[in-house]
Give the backbone structure.
Amino acid sequence: MPQRHSKNNNDLAFFTYDEKRKLGYGTQRERLGKDSIKPFDACCLCLKPFIDPLCCQKGHVFCKECIFECLLAQKKDIKRKLAAHTAQQKQEKDEEEEKLMLQKARELDAFDQQNHGAVPQYSDRSHARDKNGFHGANSVKVTSYEEEALRNMKAFWLPSATPEAPAKSEAPSTDTICPEGKEKLRLKTLFPIYLTEYNNEHKKPQSLESSYICPSCKVTFTNTLSLVAISTCGHVFCKKCSDKFLAVDKVCLACNRECKERNLICLEKGGTGFAGHGDRLEATDFKHVGSGSGFGAGETSCEDLNPRN
């Protein structure tokens, strides 16, 4: 059976669909591996196995030391911005008072000139003469004639003729923000979580790392499971046990402490800037082949290695 003419015809001035596919033209998809997904027992800030974990109300887990340092750095930044904003407001107030005083002095001089014919003498700093007698372009204090000449000369390279745009800072927010969820976060809303470690002398785990299990069904926690933490006591269960027992009995299965439905917090897995999460864990690579330069007169490639959520 003869082959298709489109696959064998290679003397055309453009690429065929089959030739573009062989060159890697189009979007290539590949599922992310295990190394590209953040483990459930890793801190959202340092991406290492958490130590003394604390969880927010949105289910993001952090190391105690990491989240404390993050909140402390945010408070220092807020304090610095508030000081800068206060200084700016004070400067604007002083400038406004100075303008009002200068305007009042000019009105008095104009009134005095109209009634007595005297020449007004302004107290403006820009009209004061230099005691050394030098009024060059780089001088801080210039006369009115030099000021007018500089305005018409448009010499932008001179320091005295360079326009200045005052930088205005808005009033900063005094709320600390969760580094992962970008919502308001306070220290008192964080609660510690406790995971049940797998301890069995007869059957040791394959890896040296500590593994965790559900206190109820004894299933080993992995990234494939959805985990639920109780904000009142901090114990962590799998989603199935949470829906089947905790949501119905309103009691923790590990410590028999009462809990309400609002106390059940679903833990987030993955989702950092260096890890993927969700159902569609794909990395895409798009290549566009132009006309010329080996493959065309310009070859551009655009890569997007972020996972599609």
User: Anything to note?
Assistant: Residues 16 and 164 are 58 Å apart (CA to CA). Residues 64-116 form the longest helix (53 residues). The helical segments are 5-8, 17-22, 64-116, 144-153, 239-249. The longest strand covers residues 282-288.
